[in-house]
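Question thread 4412

I'm putting together a teaching handout and wanted feedback from people who do this every day. The idea is simple: show students a protein as raw sequence, then show them the structure tokens that encode its fold, then repeat with a second protein so they can compare. Below is the first pair exactly as I plan to print it.
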Amino acid sequence: MLEIYWGCLIFGVIFAVVTLLFGDVLHSALSVSPEFSFDHLAWLQSMVVVGGITSFGGAGVLLTGYTELTGSEVIMLSLFAAIVLSVLVYFVYVKPMRNCENSSGFFITDLIGKTGEVIVLIPAGGFGEVLIRIGAGNTNQTAASHDKVELPAGTRVVVAEIREGVLYVCRNNEQGGGGTV
């Protein structure tokens, strides 16, 4: 069993060095398709998983070499150490770093339900422009009236749907709603 612990520990150290040296290259090489992205599973990030494997190996090596515990006790304590350290890495490092990311990038579908302001008149059967606050900034987008009514500049609107890159907006009758410009 000691060989397995050493294997996990060595794998983790090699992975850390390779990631440190070639992290961006590996990330872009392994990002085959958005359908296979694990970005929504933050706890499944390589830092958490490999950190758990490495701590399992390290704890196993230490417990085997410096205690009189039985093999099953060492496995259980090593698993416990791996889980605790992985949870700690996730909540102390991964989650805070993910929350502090501030980007101006967004998906246009993120705008559905957002409120904004008409900055260029939207005729009943035509197109105008709206200003919407998203993330740390604002975005100007082409817009049309969802209800086929004219919306003058300065009107507060909410994005009802998006078709072919055009926001279809409705008059926002709420006063002082969050997320407005």
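The second pair follows. I'd like the answer to focus on this one:
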Amino acid sequence: MNDKKFVDAIFIELFEKKLSQYKESLTKPVNNNKDSFARARNAIALLDDSQKLDVINFLKVVIADSVSVVLGTLDGVHFPDDLEGDFAVSFDGEEIQGDLQDIFIEKAQEAGAYD
């Protein structure tokens, strides 16, 4: 059960909190700031509303794929750059690895990340 609790916490942090912050920042009025958000906001401002939404929704794919790589590596089913070895992941003394990636991908699919 702790594996689901762990994935839920990660999912909420990224898909609900961070994605909302990204969307808010990217839809603010254009300005002359030079930080990463301002540069992205200024570029996205050139698009129509539908295209802006497409770009923002693509962030779901980026988040889901990034987390999937990390969780798959911890689960021992994905080996980036031949990083092979055994990981020991536990939460409150309970081993939670093995299904983290699957649980997360299912939640991402339910949230429409790959639509």
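Top answer:
Good format. For the second protein you could add a caption like this: The first helix runs from residue 2 to 26. The chain is about 65% helix and 5% strand.
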